[in-house]
């Protein structure tokens, strides 16, 4: 028994080498993953500091992510064509009566006959209810055509929407935590593998070091192999996450890059995130109405559509309206109607957003089409994250391995 304990005591220091190698491999890879994402903001002083690779390159990463996904599978014209004005009109049916009455009443009441006296208001309030209801009904019948006209104008001049991809990029690059969450959500398993693989690779890499130290225990051996282990575990793990892009049979096993292997699953996740956080009706509406140039173009399109609708107004109604408010005020009323339409665009009913989102169907479209992308194109979604400053991550891993090897030499000595 004493001989066994004596043997263990003699060789325990050697057995510790592959164990330490495994711990170093895990530690360096785990740190590399964290350094890709954190800290969100720069931490340090001058050149002595660090910011996560992804947040530090938020603008570049956002552009690559959007252009490699949304930009490749859905065109802006397709999104515009998907919105059906008739469906919108049906969705907003519960608001039509109120909207029509508000429009007609405001047009009439804003008009002035005989100078500054609003005789038209008196005439309208005194008009028979049946006449009012008849005018309301005629205007209501025109609304679907007006909405069709506005929608068709948007389709012809869809650049009024601006560049949707650019809007998504701008939104994403200002939300660094969301950008990090997207990459972690999409490639979380791969990043976990990156960290754990350091242990799997580190242990076998430490076995030859154990024998080398037994026969040649020079001071630089452990630090040198520590550096090598830190470097190789990072490089091997990064390679296995990315390559090979297509399945390959090696020694009876099918090998494929871990990220590409989960292409369909990751595509579904990205579709859901884009639909919820980056590209939906509410966000697009806010983008449009935030830019003065876009607002001017929208107002121009709306006014043009209203003018066309006026020209087609039923002969029975037009004379009644002109008689009620006068020819000059009738012409001015187009601006009143356009203003009401713009106000409706600024404060829409939530069901309006829901209808457009269902038409756009971003989650399903993006998830399905990304899932069918060629592996080399889909690989472009993750590769920039790893490739950006990859040498720094590998260098840090190697440096930590060097330090760990030196400390192990001090301990064994």
Automatic annotation (TrEMBL):
Source organism, top-level taxon: Bacteria
Species classification: Bacteria, Pseudomonadati, Pseudomonadota, Gammaproteobacteria, Cellvibrionales
Keyword Membrane set for record: yes
Q: Which residues cross the membrane?
A: 12-33, 198-216, 222-241, 393-412
This chain's source organism reads Spongiibacter nanhainus
Keywords linked to the UniProt accession:
Membrane, Transmembrane, Transmembrane helix
Name used for this protein in its record: DUF445 domain-containing protein
